[in-house]
Design goal:
This is MACPF domain-containing protein. It is flat, with a radius of gyration of 19 Å. It is of the alpha+beta class. The chain folds into two domains: 87 residues, no CATH class; 60 residues, no CATH class. The termini are far apart. The strands form five sheets. The protein has a two-stranded antiparallel sheet. Strands 3-4 form a two-stranded antiparallel sheet. The chain contains six helices and ten strands, in the order H-E-E-E-E-E-E-E-H-H-H-E-E-E-H-H.
Length: 163
């Protein structure tokens, strides 16, 4: 039974690779957006992929997907004001700016109304472990957007015309 759970979890994780996330939400798998990937993967050259810690084999996986052994990492912060914590978490996620992402909301169980959350929150800190069994990742060196994504994105950034 445990093998079936691992296989199901792996298949869900593989389906999320290359999909988008709404930064105002969370980065967990259940928040992956859309039914299609945003980037092109090699769907012709496939192989069976063995997941080392579980012994589970996933059939017909794109060669653009790899799995590596996970690890245990301790994440710890200083005691910070709301805006400082928001900026710290954004930096760790490679996001510019101080406007909080959904990641901050999820970690500290905030409402998402960042103006009021900031006013109601004096200081924040975290100290915990992130334990992963494995890492799934895309191996293509240069990601190419799917055609439907290219068509949906305007060629020039003009906020007034998008409003």
């Amino acid at each position: 039974r445990q093998s079936t759970n691992h296989q199901s979890s792996m298949e869900v994780a593989m389906e999320a690779l290359g999909k988008g996330f709404d930064l105002t939400s969370d980065f967990r798998l259940r928040f992956a957006k859309g039914s299609q990937r945003l980037v092109v993967l090699d769907e012709v050259n496939k192989r069976d992929l063995l997941i080392p810690p579980t012994g589970v084999t996933i059939k017909a996986v794109s060669q653009d997907i790899r799995v590596d052994k996970g690890d245990r990492i301790r994440f710890k912060s200083d005691v910070l004001e709301f805006n400082q914590m928001s900026e710290l978490l954004n930096q760790k996620c490679s996001i510019q700016g101080k406007v909080p992402s959904g990641y901050l909301n999820a970690i500290f169980d905030l409402t998402g109304d960042w103006f009021h959350d900031a006013a109601d929150t004096k200081y924040l800190a975290f100290d915990g472990y992130f334990i992963s069994l494995y890492y799934l990742h895309l191996t293509t060196s240069s990601l190419e957007l799917q055609d439907h994504v290219k068509m949906a994105v305007p060629p020039h950034w003009d906020p007034a015309s998008l409003a």
